[in-house]
Amino acid sequence: MPRVTINRKEHFNAAHRLYNPEWTDEKNEQIFGKCNNPNWHGHNYEVIVSLTGEPDHETGYVYDMKKLSDLVKIQVLNKFDHKNLNLDVVEFKSLNPTAENIVKVIYDLLRAEIEEEYEMKITLYETERNYVEYSG
Predict the structure, then answer these.
(1) Is 58 a catalytic residue?
(2) Which residue of the set 41, 82, 117, 133 is catalytic?
């Protein structure tokens, strides 16, 4: 059977601050610049969940898009949307919420719910021009 990739795109809005507590304020400012704003800053994130697998011979689906949509809503949007990632999301209590760390957290949350038979890749747009990808 041919392998097909399906994609589900969602968005969420969230605030964060990039900060390393082991560094001085000066070093944090030097490394993270505007993203180190002590009063936070926000992004309109877009997340794309890609699953690759063989279409089911009875349904034609690689994976039920409604089921995928529900998983993304429960595991990602409900946790991240309109939140301060540093303060409101337990996964970032001791993890700097860079785009690189956010995409890995999203992957881990979804990977725990999606069978290993599916290859999974998460693409996270922090801005229109800046995005990261993670596939485990």
Answers:
(1) no
(2) 82
